[in-house]
Write a structure and sequence with these properties.
The protein is built from 15 helices and 20 strands. The protein has 511 residues and is of the alpha+beta class. The structure holds flavin-adenine dinucleotide. Flavin-adenine dinucleotide binds next to helix 3, strand 3, strand 9, strand 12 and helix 12.
Length: 511
């Protein structure tokens, strides 16, 4: 391990910082205590931050770095997270094969409960306004007797976080400190201690416990980072400290999520065990509705819609909610809009009467059904209906001296393609590789020249995918039969009939 002696620290501080010509970065007030020094400090114990720590612990060169992770939430709860086999968390991500292969490579996938994860091999996507459709069906790419390649693996975020924590724990206690129940209250530049290291260009973090005092005994009040990583989500304090700006906007939409039970599949799947994801764009209602498979004939819902519609859906009884989800995949836009405006019963309705169910049953008799709809939803897991605001943010850069951003701290995108966390894991894989390269070549892990490899690898890729999701959202928010709608349906139909283009899109969806 490279020791953090003063002689090692000093050469890496650039002359301008030493002479104090660079203005001091600050995220709050100063404190005088000497900080404890780490090679890498990661703020944020979500999937991106824990993924980075697990990756650093997995590679021989970086496992010797002295690393710390700080998380406001209580990670012991995440470590002991448990649900029954028929219950699923409502925060689920579709991990692409390249995300899963990264998690396998660092050993974390061995700690994920794969009985709770669900691969899918087919995807049906169609436009609720025009009916044009594109099906991503791998059977055109393979022989009927081959196993179909996986498009993505649905994994509960909590299952992934628990797996990452187990993997980090399994890597041993040497050189790693996890400060959970601890918040970063301020970040500022350190000072040039005449009798110690010159930390005037190093980030120094002040930590405050958020949990019970007894569990916080070992938390130092201040720590210094040779490299500070912001994996601290959309409101990243690390990004603010580094003075990195973001571009973006709020979509004025919410993503309604829920865990649903499905009736038995209508037709037996072939090859056996094949599962399908469904997404229908609903331009007049503000965004797509998606039903993604989970084990045991359950599924997770992500319905992107206006804030008003989201509030309406959340206020419904379970039976009315189920009727609305079934309607969303089956009825015309006009019928669906009508049902979205139905009065909410003032008192709980009896088992015998349910206006939303009755309306759906009546309207279905007059609506021809395409073959590509999902099996009917029959139940909703109690307490699983929730909604999240949808936003687009992109940091102007991912790096600055001694700072790197990953995951939602760097970019937040529309969830319609299920790519947000996949981009975050892509960042983590790239940054871990960059740090490993630096460690192997005796470079300073926090030097801007070291970090440029990471930014160069990730910025353009993330910009492309974030922009594609934004364009798709805008394209599929134009209701009616105007030129955009025609172009949109023509686009889907043409792609659906061009095997080579479709194959290209499918390969890209794989990650
Ligand atoms: C409805 C919806 C559906 C989605 N579906 C998908 C999908 O199918 N596939 C996909 O890839 N992505 C999906 N996403 C996106 C995905 O959920 C996020 O990109 C991902 O969870 C972000 O992880 P992260 O670790 O970067 O950030 P976060 O999970 O936000 O973690 C940040 C952590 O930093 C901590 N923190 C913040 N400030 C401090 C502080 N001062 N001190 C200490 N700790 C701090 C927080 O407590 C938090 O734990 C979806 C998003 C939404 C809204």
């Amino acid at each position: 391990m490279r020791s953090l002696s003063r002689s090692v620290i000093r050469p890496y501080i650039c002359p301008s910082c030493r002479s104090g010509t660079v203005s001091r970065r600050r995220f709050a007030t100063q404190s005088a205590q000497a900080p404890e020094i780490y090679d890498v400090v990661c703020v944020g114990g979500g999937p991106a931050g824990l993924g980075l720590l697990a990756a650093l612990r997995a590679a021989p060169a970086t496992s010797k770095l002295k690393v710390a992770l700080i998380e406001t939430q209580d990670l012991s709860k995440a470590r002991s997270w448990k649900l029954g086999p028929h219950q699923f968390s409502n925060r689920v991500s579709s991990l692409t094969p390249s995300s899963v292969s990264f998690l396998r490579r660092i050993g974390a996938w061995d700690h994920v409960d794969t009985a709770r994860a669900q691969e899918y091999q087919e995807m049906q996507v169609w436009d609720g306004e025009t009916g044009s459709k594109i099906s991503f069906d791998w059977s055109t790419e393979t022989s009927p007797f081959e196993n179909l390649p996986t498009i993505a693996t649905m994994t509960e975020n909590a299952n992934l976080v628990r797996g990452l924590l187990s993997q980090i724990e399994a890597s041993g206690e040497e050189n790693v400190a996890i400060f959970s129940n601890t918040t970063v209250s301020s970040i500022e530049n350190g000072t040039d201690d005449p009798s110690g290291p010159n930390l005037s260009a190093w980030p120094v973090l002040s930590l405050s416990p958020t949990g019970s005092a007894s569990s916080q005994a070992a938390v130092p009040s201040r720590i210094a980072a040779r490299l500070l990583i912001g994996a601290d989500g959309i409101n990243s304090p690390v990004r603010r400290y580094a003075g990195i700006t973001t571009d973006g906007w709020d979509y004025d939409r919410h993503g309604v999520v829920a865990t649903l039970s499905l009736s038995d599949p209508v037709a037996p799947t072939f090859p056996i065990g094949t599962r399908t994801a469904y997404q229908r764009f609903l331009p007049s209602l503000g965004g797509p509705v998606a039903l993604l498979p989970l084990p045991n004939n359950t599924a997770t819902l992500v319905w992107s819609t206006t804030v008003e519609h989201a509030a309406y859906l959340k206020s419904l009884s379970p039976r009315a909610f189920i009727a609305m989800v079934n309607a969303a995949f089956r009825l015309s836009m006009a019928d669906l809009k009508y049902m979205m405006g139905m009065p909410r019963p003032a008192t709980p309705v009896s088992d015998a009467e349910n206006p939303h169910e009755d309306e759906l049953t009546w309207r279905l008799q007059h609506t021809p059904q395409p073959s590509h709809i999902p099996p009917p939803v029959t139940g909703v897991q109690e307490g699983s209906v929730a909604s999240f605001p949808l936003r687009f943010r992109h940091a102007s850069t991912y790096i600055s001296p001694r700072v790197a951003l990953v995951g939602d701290a760097a970019h937040v995108i529309h969830p319609l393609a299920g790519q947000g966390l996949n981009l975050g894991l892509g960042d983590v894989a790239s940054l871990a590789k960059t740090i490993e390269y630096a460690a192997n070549h005796g470079m300073d892990v926090g030097d801007i020249l070291t970090l440029e490899r990471y930014a160069a690898e990730r910025y353009a890729t993330n910009t492309k995918i974030g922009a594609a999701c934004d364009v798709l959202h805008k394209l599929y928010n134009v209701p009616g039969q105007g030129p955009v709608t025609w172009a949109r349906s023509l686009g889907l139909d043409v792609i659906d009939r061009l095997p080579f283009v479709k194959s290209f899109l499918m390969k890209n969806a794989e990650g």
